[in-house]
Fold:
Amino acid sequence: MNCFVGYVPGTIKKRFDSIGVENTEANRAFYRDLLFSTKGLGQYISGAILFEETLYQKSPSGVPMVDLLKAEGIIPGIKVDKGLETLPLTDDEKATMGLDGLSERCK
Structure:
């Protein structure tokens, strides 16, 4: 099973607000560390799609989040698009944005 663990910034804010936790980079790192360092997680999840923040983020103990996933045998990936936008001159038709600059962002 694969999972999406990066959370859209607005989504993680809602989750934190619901439990009275401030949406800071440090709290997001703490949350991800708690999730990614769960022993045996790799028995149930084979891959994880991350947002850019998570890809480069370190746990509170200084271990890269990607390494926490790899230690459990989970293959890290990254969300490469920048979301949906309405196409001009359409009836609310959407298109995936951000793929045009993908090669530059991957360098």
Q: What stands out?
A: The CA atoms of residues 36 and 69 lie 6 Å apart.
